Amino acid sequence: xxxxxxxxLRQIGVIAARHGFGEWFERAGVWRLLGRREKVxxxxxxxxxxxxxxxxxxxxxxGPSFVKLGQVLSTRADxxxxxxxxxxxTLQDHVEPFxxxxxxxxxxxxxxxxxxxxxxxxxxxxxxxxxxxQVHRAVTLEGDEVVVKVQRPGIAEQIDSDLAVLRSLxxxxxxxxxxxxIYSPTGIIDEFxxxxxxxxxxxxxxxxxxxxxxxxxxxxxxxxxRVYEALSSRTVLTMEFVRGVKxxxxxxxxxxxxxxAGHILDTSFRQLFEDGLFHGDxxxxxxxxxxxxxxxxxxxxxxGRLTRVMQETLVMLVMAVALKDSDSVARILYRVxxxxxxxxxxxxxxxxxxxxxxxxxxxxxEVDSRSLMRDLLDLAVRYHIRVPKExxxxxxxxxxxxxxxxxxxxxxNVLEVAMPYAKELLADRYDPSQLQGGLMxxxxxxxxxxxxxxxxxxxxxxxxxxxKFSVTVRAEQFDRLNxxxxxxxxxxxxxxxxxxxxVGVFISFAQTGPWQFxxxxxxxxLGLALSAGLFGATFTWFLFGxxxxxxxxxxxxxxxxxPR
Length: 564
Hints:
The chain is α+β, with helices and mostly antiparallel strands and 564 residues long. It is 60% helix and 9% strand. It has helices spanning 3-18, 22-27, 30-34, 44-48, 51-62, 64-73, 82-88, 100-111, 115-118, 155-176, 185-200, 202-215, 254-275, 308-322, 326-336, 345-359, 369-382, 389-408, 414-429, 438-466, 476-510, 522-544, 547-556, and strands at residues 119-122, 128-129, 133-140, 145-151, 222-223, 236-240, 245-246, 277-279, 287-289, 295-297, 303-305, 338-339, 385-386, 516-517, 520-521. α10 (155-176) packs antiparallel against α11, α13 (254-275) packs parallel to α19 and α15 (326-336) packs across α16 (345-359).
């Protein structure tokens, strides 16, 4: 580590100790690495707080990079327990806006021209200031009203520096703190690294906006701001200004509320099951109500993507939950997840059965889907099943959308409104008239399997009757044992040959024969040389007879393939 990294690590250690995490730093050997232990008092209020709340307070006190880490983790219920995700979702950026002069500097460095050559005016007062970027209203030279998102100076370098410290700290914690093994600190830091660098590159967000604009082109109730390509880059993003009111602040009549709620539900279903591209953070601040009860979506830094297979899996998962089929729920989550090791599927199924029995005691419309989703993901994490991040992000987006819907129209029967979408979805997926329908593909596969099955069974029975059926079992341990036995047999054979040759040499030297060399029998000298060669070969094989020797021996002994 560099000196500045050690200094930053000391700062992190002191703040962590202040929030009650000093023991972890002690067990990880951080204080030994730094050369001294910092004495920090933990307040009584901190001691009374839950671990999740103390973790949120810790990230808040560590600064912008760590606040952003918490915000990223709040979208990843597949990485942290639900209580941590809920706490981190309350993290807000509290940063001072940077001066307008620096905004002009960033625009000039990024776009290659002075701001005065690109914009007619830029509002000195920012609309919003966050840890990553700052947003200003502006007017283009053509007179269009826009918003300009400008990346905070030095934020990329600061995040890279903090990431280096965090990665080193994560490795230390994983090595010595057993409790961290379930949640993999290094895996969390790697995910944050990927997510934050995507967010730092505004080109990704611009591409997301263009994709949403294309998908919603034929949905008149939805507005997506367009990107001004000539005024955008990796660190500057210029978008159309949308005039509207946050959905949480809109003054709407009961009829208007129902209509807006219907639009939100419609766009949510369309994003999931038609587009395969959904907004990952649809909180009330990113959803505006425009004239005519139209909607506008903002902030496309976090989006999720679902493949066709993911969409079909999602449908099966929802149906399995609705039917309280714990076995199917367990198998679907196990199949789509990435188990770190062989999971206890029976225990996983039993826990899911208990969970469904707890939440599905009333009608589906009254189910607390927020808690059900959180507990399902918690179970997957506990059983070391890494659910793909798209599903975790979808869970968070669904919970946020459900909260908005209930605030707009508390009496809305979501199932009743959603039923036409479900019927349309099932008709599209399982329409036999469409060769790409899921049912047609399933029937074709089943028909092919059913046609081949009698022939394959007949072949197996004939082989059994004629004695040609054999089962081959391979195990790496048996292969290694076989190799060791072959090597030992060869060593013994060479050793016996060498011993026999030595006996013959002694007999030759004891007798006088017609062939002499300097008074010594020629046969005895040849036997002596042969025995020395055999002993040398045996010793060499014993020391160096690894892969090369085994391959040669296998060929000599008639093996078709060299041993592993």
